[in-house]
Amino acid sequence: MRNFFNFLKSRVFFIQLGLAIVLLVVVSIFVLRWLSSTTNHGEFVEVPNFAKMSVPDMRKSAEEAKLRYEVLDSANFNPEYPRFSIIEQNPPAGSKVKENRKIYLTVNPSGYKKVSVPNIIQVTQRNATSMLRAVGLDVQRVTYIDQLGKDMVYYIKYKGKQIKPGDKLPKTSKIELVCGNGSITDQARVQADSE
Prior knowledge:
The chain is 34% helix and 29% strand. The protein is α+β, with helices and mostly antiparallel strands.
């Protein structure tokens, strides 16, 4: 044990300790410079604004900015943006990022997704309107025909053609309800009287 304490006080120990410190400083400086050059420390690229760009234009712009990208599909159509254009990006436009950073882009689909027309036949106009709105369809017009059930839906029309419950229509489609006006036709009266 005494020899160990004597070694700690010796000149050889201090020379080796000094060499170890110098070597540690040199290696640290080398590693820090290497990291600075390989990580482009302090060098940033500004993320372009990809909003409303088509996918081919976005690719060109991302490559010019030396950025990687990943295109994500969107289930929600946004009518304020052109079809198949960029509607969202992460990180946002104007952000400072490293070169070769991956940007995530959401593309506007070609149109609204399709929804099934609910069964609203023989349902009141008021309830039918609520049921249609719940699935994303709108009532454009209500027309009336001579039928006994006042305000009861007898037919559904889309673009002038009769459709059935279960048919698929693009979300936000405008449809027409054909409802009864509460009166009965003379022909129906004659048939009822003859029975």
